[in-house]
Structures are given as C-alpha cells and as structure tokens.
Write a structure and sequence with these properties.
alpha+beta; Cyclophilin; two-stranded antiparallel ribbon; globular
Length: 276
C-alpha cells in the first residue's frame, strides 16, 4: 500500500507550509544574533553556527543595511511570512514582488538534524527543476508560522516526505539523461521518450522504496506539540530561529493580503546585529 501511494503521489504539488517553535526547555543555540524590527514588534533571532555560509551571508547583508525598509512581501496565514526582495524597498502598491535578488546564490546547507519549526528562519530559493542543487537566494528568507499536527497525521507526513524525495530524485536522474531525451524529441520518437521517462521514474521510486523516510522521535514530538513543516525538511536550508518575539510572526501572518499574497498594507523590516 505504501508503494501504491508513493506512485500516485510522485508529482503531487506541495501547496501549504506550516511550522513550529523552539522548545523552551532546550538550551539557546550558539551563534550571532540579530533583531528584526517591524511595526508589529521586534524579533530576536539567533543564526546557527551549523550553517556558516548562510549565517555569514545574513550577517554581511545585515551589516551593510540591505534589509532596511524592505517588505514582507508574501504572507500566508498558517504558512509563513517571506521578505528580503531588494526590489520591495521602493515598490509601488501594485508591483509584483518576489523575483528580486542579488547576483549570487548561497550553496545549500540542508541538515537532517535541523528541522522546520515555528519561528525558524530559512532561505527562499528557486524550485528543484531549475535549481537541483537547492541553492538559496542571497537575500530572500521566510519565517515559519505553521500549525500543530496530530499523531494520526504522521503516516501522511511521511508519505509527503517520500513523495517529495522521489520527485527530487526523478528530476536528478532526468537531468542525467537530458541529452538522450532531447534526441528522442528531435526524432519525434514519443514511444522511446515515454519509455525512458518511465524508466527514470521507476528508478527514483525504487530508491525511495529501499530507504523510505521516517520521522525521527524529535520530529514527531515537535510536529505534534509545537507544530512544524515536516514536508519541507530536507528541502530548504534552515539557518536560525526566533528566540523572542514569536507572536510577531502571528501578527504579520494575520494581515489581509491581495494578489500574490502581498499584504494590502506595507509591512517593513529593519534588521540590526545585536550579538556577533
């Protein structure tokens, strides 16, 4: 039954994100700290030493003032609040946002022991098909809000994780055969193209079936008590978390939005270093 579900959900689009907070009975992570200021309050954020490339990049940009007066341009209640588009600083009310960035990306630092939870800060990025290395945006980030799951949800969470992993492997294996696929297309050999594509799909599925993803005890505890975004684990780089001011995320996420989930009223940020 698990295999049947994996096959049916291989290309299922993941449409929602949720998240959870850092357990208060755990020690504060080591790392530099920044203060994100908004009209709804301030958030003290620690940047993880375990993700040094993202830590150093965020600190560098903060020190240069690049985030001053930028917007939280994408807000989805129960999902996350996203900001950091350089084009948002002087954006008009009806301007499309979300494509702005600097002229570089940051190599992925995705760690299995760093999971999504309410209040984490993670790097936005382009999708897997155009970005198989899952490199992060230089400037854009999101703060996770999310929801609490039930124990009964764990099987479906694992199903989503395996589906996403199978899709990622499929894209990887497809890129390795792209020249052959293009030759089939040029020759208008649909049968050969479809057979090779199916072979690639089956290879990806077999890999996942041999080593299916299972939630750890830490993940289950977090997602069923504080809430979390399990289907994003292993897909985006999480590089810090909110230590104080978690309710600010809820306040921002509650604001009415319009086209492309942009808040109707501008929500600006200023970020400053408070501990190096």
């Amino acid at each position: 039954m698990q295999n049947l579900y994996l096959k049916s959900l291989l290309f299922l689009a993941i449409a929602t994100i949720s998240s959870c907070s850092f357990s208060q009975n755990k020690p504060v992570p080591e790392g530099p700290q920044v203060l994100i200021k908004t009209q709804y309050g301030n958030m003290k954020v620690v940047l993880y030493n375990e993700t040094p490339l993202h830590r150093d990049n965020f600190m560098k940009l903060t020190k240069t003032g690049i985030y001053d007066s930028l917007l939280f341009h994408r807000v989805i209640k129960g999902f996350m609040v996203q900001g950091g588009d350089p084009q948002s600083k002087r954006a008009t009310k009806d301007q499309m946002l979300g494509d702005g960035d600097l002229n570089y990306t940051v190599p992925a630092e995705i760690r299995p022991d760093i999971i999504h939870k309410k209040g984490v800060i993670a790097a936005a990025r382009n999708g897997d098909e155009e970005n198989p290395g899952r490199r992060s945006s230089a400037t854009q980030f999101y703060l996770a809000q999310g929801k609490v799951y039930k124990l009964d949800d764990v099987p479906s969470i694992e199903l989503n994780l395996n589906s996403r992993a199978a899709e990622s492997l499929f894209l990887k294996y497809k890129s390795e055969k792209i020249d052959t696929l293009m030759l089939f297309q040029m020759a208008r050999n649909k049968e050969g193209y479809d057979k090779l594509l199916d072979k690639i799909k089956q290879k990806a599925l077999r890999e996942i079936e041999k080593n299916p993803i299972r939630l750890t005890k830490q993940q289950v505890e977090t997602y069923t008590t504080l809430g979390g975004i399990p289907h994003l684990d292993g897909a985006y780089t999480v590089f810090g978390e909110v230590l104080e001011g978690l309710a600010v995320i809820d306040s921002i996420a509650a604001q009415p939005t319009g086209l492309n989930d942009r808040p109707l009223e501008n929500i600006r940020m200023t970020i400053e270093v408070i501990k190096e």
